Amino acid sequence: MALEHAILVSLLEQPGSGYELARRFDRSIGRFWTATHQQIYRVLKRMEVDGWVTGQDVDQEGRPDKRSYSVAAPGRAALTTWLREPVQPETVRHELAVKIRGAAFDDAAGRAALIAEVEHYRADHKTTLHRYLTGEQRDFPDEATLGEGQRLQHVVLRGGIAYERMVLAWLDDVLDTLHGLGR
């Protein structure tokens, strides 16, 4: 997937400025596709040149003007083409998993350092899970009242929640195993 597709989906959900898009990426889209603010602005400008999005200057009282973007017909056509293409399964590359396997060839001091690294990794995933659960309560309090788009957004979030729970369970297993070595 290209960043362009994630931007098109976001703008179809709600038109907005580059800053607003960057905030959406930080808050929700970033759960499954990350991009820096600079990348978003750069790609957005290219998409405007290519005719995929249109920009409109919006006056703001007491603040600099902003440029608000929406999806143009060529952008919608490009997204439709991409949506209908088959998705290839992602190749998993997990550096921490390789380190864990390599622990068999390290000494107790090395394993202690790995335990600290796994604990830090676990804390990051616990924070992410908490953020997802908080967002779910905030954005999807009543499944019965959600529209089609919101239900699709929610199912993606539920996938992220399930993934974080799976990673946390695996990391707990890793820590139990590492702590049990050498006993």
TrEMBL record:
Domain Transcription regulator PadR C-terminal, residue spans: 92-178
Residue span(s) of domain Transcription regulator PadR N-terminal: 7-80
SUPFAM superfamilies referenced in this protein's UniProt entry, alphabetically: Winged helix' DNA-binding domain
Origin: domain of life: Bacteria
Family annotation (InterPro entries): Tscrpt_reg_PadR_C (IPR018309), Tscrpt_reg_PadR_N (IPR005149), WH-like_DNA-bd_sf (IPR036388), WH_DNA-bd_sf (IPR036390)
Signal peptide location: none
Name this polypeptide is given: PadR family transcriptional regulator
Species of provenance: Catellatospora methionotrophica
Lineage: Bacteria, Bacillati, Actinomycetota, Actinomycetes, Micromonosporales
